[in-house]
Amino acid sequence: MRPTDFLPIFGWLKTYSRSDLQGDAFASAITAILLVPQGIAYALLAGIPPQLGLYASILPPMLYALFGTSRTLSVGPVSIAAVMIASALASPEISALHQPEQSAVMLAAETGMILLLMALLRMGSLVNFISHPVLTGFTSGASILIVFSQLPPLLGLAKFDCTWSLGCYADTVRTANPAAAATGFCALSLLILFGRPLTGLLKKTAMKPAWITAVSKCGPLLAVALGAAAVNRFDLHTDYRVATVGPIPAGLPALRFDMGDYAHWRLLLPYAVLIALVAYVESVAIAKAIANLKGEKIRPNQELFGLGAANIASALSGGMAVAGGFSRTMVNFSAGARTQLAMLAASGLVALALMFFSPYFAAIPKSVLAAIILVAITPLIRLKNIVDTWRYDASDGLAEGVTLLGVLVLGIEEGITLGIVLTLISYLRITSHPHIAVVGRIQGTEHFRNVKRHEVKTWRHLLLLRVDENLTFANVNYVEEFITDQLRRQPDIRHIVLIFASVSYIDSTALEVIEGLNDTLKNRNITLHLSEAKGPVLDKLQKTDFLGHLKPGKVFFRTQDAVNELA
Amino acid sequence: MRPTDFLPIFGWLKTYSRSDLQGDAFASAITAILLVPQGIAYALLAGIPPQLGLYASILPPMLYALFGTSRTLSVGPVSIAAVMIASALASPEISALHQPEQSAVMLAAETGMILLLMALLRMGSLVNFISHPVLTGFTSGASILIVFSQLPPLLGLAKFDCTWSLGCYADTVRTANPAAAATGFCALSLLILFGRPLTGLLKKTAMKPAWITAVSKCGPLLAVALGAAAVNRFDLHTDYRVATVGPIPAGLPALRFDMGDYAHWRLLLPYAVLIALVAYVESVAIAKAIANLKGEKIRPNQELFGLGAANIASALSGGMAVAGGFSRTMVNFSAGARTQLAMLAASGLVALALMFFSPYFAAIPKSVLAAIILVAITPLIRLKNIVDTWRYDASDGLAEGVTLLGVLVLGIEEGITLGIVLTLISYLRITSHPHIAVVGRIQGTEHFRNVKRHEVKTWRHLLLLRVDENLTFANVNYVEEFITDQLRRQPDIRHIVLIFASVSYIDSTALEVIEGLNDTLKNRNITLHLSEAKGPVLDKLQKTDFLGHLKPGKVFFRTQDAVNELA
């Protein structure tokens, strides 16, 4: 392992150029402009004081910049992790502790430790077991939950405390605070205008694309500034009871960590595991999407390490759990970021904001923050995707729909767990029915193909079977039954050749079953042969008595050789 | 579905012959001789009154005979299920209810319902996820636990209540009851003599093999009869405090079922799930082994139904959970059983014994039953198997060893759960690293093989890759990385052909990743092609835009065609 494998930053610093610096400097300003309102908004979404989101925007991006392999991923507070934190803090056993802030910080620490442990165990590829459909279903479901959770702050309502009574919802909506709702809707309109309408307009001018991005991404900052100004100017907080962020401690966070007790860690563990899993899978998906565009490479195990370090750093500086954010990363990239220097600078700017501007944050109306979250989250609700996935593969579409419903009906953790279990079950179901083809020779070639799909020559005493998967405990029974079925249909068969061209691994269960099958076949005067077996498979079989028991059955190099001898 | 699929008994009754009857009648007597002492012994092993084992030997085999697909499987009380029941009843939350008998019957009912549910969901093939090494490790571990659990009754000791203090064990052994230990060791010697020594001797005579089996299997009945006679003759129970079975209610069980409450069912659920899983996997393994010898066929989903019905029947008649027993099935088969009529008759004989001989059971010494269990269980301890498995496949050997240790150190349920989790993880690890080969053409043929293993021709601008597995969320990232790596090593490549001969399924995650890869390659002026793609795969791809996006990349029928055009 080279030093740059562990600290990728030194890999790209060596070739750093002036044009890189220009792109990074510009992108850092735009990303910082996004980080401040998002940090505050996502902390409130998680149900914790706003500074926890800002603290999570300083050290974690710096640590990720050192250890991460993506050059443009923006690590910091993200909406999906925030709603998972909210769900953990709202669970009866954790809310009974009445320490939401302490719990949130410990959750970040535990998430970081789990990620580091996974990095140590080199589990970067194992965590593939969240499939895209399950992830999309989960994200859509969580986003819908977030949309509903933001309606009360947007409208200045009391929290919904209704179950299935429509009247109760109507009563709650009637408690809306007109002043809060007005600022919320103004912010919403501003943000929507700053989206496609403004960029569409600007594209017709001669403005550079990077500047268009820059201007359009100022929406949240502008909304926050205007909202705070309105609160101050019209005394909205005191005279009209418009909820605001409230005082935020000025200055940088102290580096300290309150250990808490074992029972507390234990309670947080299942939530931390799921947050770590989702944070990792989402971050790598985003990082890969961008890296592919530029032909760069993401190393999953190093990502685990980078994200783990970022979360530990967040906890040490009193922040919430972090991950790579989709919208922020896209902004960072399209604003021209070339390397993680952009994120280093952006987090420096957030630190400056915290030192010098925090008094101004107090007056930001919560309804404006709700509008920011709503605009950021809506694109993540991809209901049509379920239909598209279903059309291509019904079981994937089902998994996506069920995960979404699971999140909505059962809850965040239950939904993602259900999705993972569904993925595993469908995976086992598929792989336990391997593809096996009876093959024959295409006339005039040495090419053997499926008898069902091609015009091929077959022989009366000879059965050629191509097994298209590794043989394991999960599928060998199916293979055995397939062969038994074929023999029942073709009683004249005297030789069976298993074409192992695609078999690279036979586990010990499969070997036992094939040994048993060979004995059964021998009793019935049928000889089993192999062909096209690969080197590693043969090497392993040679360690056992199998090839001896196979005799007079042979191992042929090519299927053609088997046909020449047996047909 | 034909009626005989659901009631296999009517399939073989139609061709039933006189010679079948002879074999079945003889085998039924031998199996009944085994069923009575085993039923009592396994009930005591489970920690419940002896009649629960006898009741489980009457209706359950009858129900299995109707619905099961194996002609010789002997369903009834078995040692591994008994020790799992003992473990469930000994758990703090269930023993706190002080209703061991009621709990055991409910456990049988719940096990039966789970098996029926699995049958309904057609999960016969899904439950393959217990691999042979894990099953062998579990069986060995559970058998070692059983051996230790039988030392106190064999020696007439108080139960061991020691942890890590050797002195405590020594003290407990000193409480041994000499009279009990003497009867125990006499029984042990008798049983061992009735094993290999007696059969070896009889083989030298002109006795028929079936009669040799019959005589050698009378050991347990003889031991029980002699033990009871000794207890009666020498007043061993009253004068020497030799523990005996005690009174057993005479006559057949009443068909009734006490529903219990929801909380009780809930507590038993995890145990019932594991008992159902182990009962099913063990039974099918035994049934298949015998069916293969005779060229018969076991249908897993129907087995789930048969075993489920047998367990429900056991619960309704006040019996314990049942499964197919290895030793009893082998005895039944080698005594000449041809069909389930043998088991029907055997269970009738057990019913007669319960009606007319139950007063004689009371005097059976527990030490003799312990000896019977010890002799039956010892062959299931297969420690050397771990070494053999390890030699063939280290990860399988590890799983077997860890499962065994898990059972011994953590407990029965924890051990089997650990084993299943290990199997799944190693399975995901293997399948997430699919075999991919860079291939070239073997000169003078149209045969393409791995460049690493064969002398083949390759081309500078053309990369031929054979993917040897279905593409799913679990392995597609590996495939993508493999291709990216190859391109880094061979920068001259302009065309990549993915040979899909072994690919029969591409899930939606894999499709997305390959679409992304195709975009990346296009940006770098490299064209992606497919070859040898199978019909079903092409059919599915045609539902998407993929083949359109692939252009100018093509889909070649044979790899040779691709070489002709691109090389």
TrEMBL record, chains A, B:
GO CC annotation: membrane
Keyword Metal-binding recorded: no
Pfam families to which the protein is assigned, alphabetical: STAS (PF01740), Sulfate_transp (PF00916)
Name of this chain's protein: Sulfate permease-like transporter, MFS superfamily
Membrane topology: Multi-pass membrane protein
Keywords: Membrane, Transmembrane, Transmembrane helix
Membrane-crossing residue ranges in chain numbering: 25-45, 66-90, 102-121, 133-151, 179-198, 210-231, 268-291, 303-326, 341-361, 368-387, 407-428
